[in-house]
Amino acid sequence: MAEDGFRAPDVAKLVGISYRQLDYWARTGLCSPSVKDAGGSGTQREYSFQDVVLLKTIKNLLDTGVNLQRIRKAIDFLRGHLKEPPQGLTLLSDGNKVYAASSPDEVIDLLAKGQGVFALAVDKVWSDVEGSVRKQTLKAARARGA
Questions:
Q1: Which phi-psi region, left, alpha or beta, contains residue 59 (left: φ > 0; alpha: ψ -120 to 50)?
Q2: Cβ count near 96 (within 10 Å)
Q3: Residues 6 or more apart in contact with residue 5 via CB below 8 angstroms
Q4: CATH classification of 6-145 is 1.10.490.10, yes or no?
């Protein structure tokens, strides 16, 4: 993916949030850019691919109604698991807690206990972000060539 990182306006588009929301999440430490943080007026934040996956996961969790405190814990967990595509990693929530399952058996165990109102396949988020990045890159290349 992008060696130099993704600029904040592009990240906001990839994730499906406003620039203002992205700025707020960075300033509050929910998900700060790991490539380059803003150094004052006129400087750009740059996010890694893994940052974009985390941000997309945050948005998906918020969209399902998980509270920010639970999201922060889930994101802290995910940071250590996104060095490469998270094969089979699923986040589940019962509306109160967020659980991580790394195998179908763990997902079934949670569901059998009556837990798990929704599930978010993190590897699917990863591949969705990859596809969005490819589309954005092609679109930019076409714009330069036109």
A1: alpha
A2: 10
A3: 33, 35, 36, 46, 47, 48
A4: no
Q: Where are the domains of the chain?
A: 6-145
Residue 8 to residues 14, 16, 20, 98, Cα–Cα distance (Å): 10, 12, 10, 28
Strands 90-93 and 118-121: antiparallel
Q: What is the Cα–Cα distance from 77 to 51, expressed in whole angstroms?
A: 13
pLDDT tens string for the chain (146 positions)? 445 789 999 999 999 999 999 999 998 989 989 888 776 676 788 999 999 999 999 999 888 888 888 888 888 888 887 877 888 888 887 767 788 888 777 777 766 766 556 778 888 899 999 999 988 888 878 888 76
Residue in this structure with the two tokens 């620039």, named with its chain if needed = 19
- CA 113 – CA 124 distance, rounded (Å): 25
